[in-house]
Each structure stands twice: as C-alpha cells, then as structure tokens.
Design brief:
Strand order of the largest sheet: 2-3-1-5-4
Structural class: alpha+beta
CATH architecture: 2-Layer Sandwich
CATH superfamily: Ribonuclease P, Pop5 subunit
Distance between the termini: 42 Å
CATH topology: Alpha-Beta Plaits
Largest sheet: 5 strands, antiparallel
Number of domains: 1
CATH class: Alpha Beta
Helix content: 25-40%
Number of helices: 4
Order of helices and strands: EHHEEHEEH
Number of strands: 5
C-alpha cells in the first residue's frame, strides 16, 4: 500500500526566516538547533512551541571578526507563528555562558527566496 501525498490545499504553509547570529564563541548547526528550541520553549512554552513546526534548514558561516563570530541561517516555521518565533529568537542572549545575538534579516515563503538575504 502506497502512502498518498497531501494535496497543496491540505499542507501546512511555511515561512522561512533568514537570521543573523553573532556570538563570542564558535557554534555549529546542532548548537543553533538547541538555541532555537530552547529560546522558543523558554519564552512561548512547550504547548505553543509544538505548533511552530521549527526546523533549521541551512546554516552558513559568514565572517570571523576579532570580537565575534558571525553566522547566517534559514529557519522554517509555520505561517501564523512567525511573530512568536521572531520574538523568542530576539530574546535569546546567552548560550553556554557566552553572549549571543540573533536578529531576523529576512522573511519569505520559499527557501530560494530567503537565500537572497545571505
């Protein structure tokens, strides 16, 4: 028995946030996943975060300055929860006792369109 693919009208609509991460110490994609989930659970709660459909799609290292490391990433979330995810990410400021700053630099409906912000 073959699984049926959902038609586009029944699929969840996603939005893709392009975020810029500045941190004092280097991080990996797995660290960013932990940061995103911890920030959302801490500021929105587990019940609300379960609806976000969060996923880190792409992760790029863009620059290494003397004072900090700079990364960019594309984070997927469900349409309608974009403001909740943006606020949770903006409020995250510490990871493993190091300062971190996450800002949203773009929002789009496809991954290809969100890559123009990188």
């Amino acid at each position: 028995m073959r699984l049926k693919v959902l038609p586009p009208t029944l699929r969840k609509n996603n939005r893709y946030l392009t975020v810029e991460i500045k941190t004092v110490s280097p991080i990996s994609k797995d660290d960013l996943v932990t940061i995103v989930w911890d920030a959302c659970v801490r500021f929105q709660g587990e019940a609300n975060t379960a609806n976000f459909n969060l996923w880190v799609m792409k992760f790029y290292e863009t620059a290494i300055k003397e004072e900090y490391f700079e990364y960019k990433a594309i984070v997927r979330c469900q349409r309608g929860f974009v403001d909740d995810v943006r606020s949770a990410l903006a409020l995250a400021n510490m990871y493993r006792n190091d300062r971190i700053a996450i800002t949203t630099i773009g929002l789009s409906g496809t991954i290809q369109a969100s890559q123009k912000y990188i």
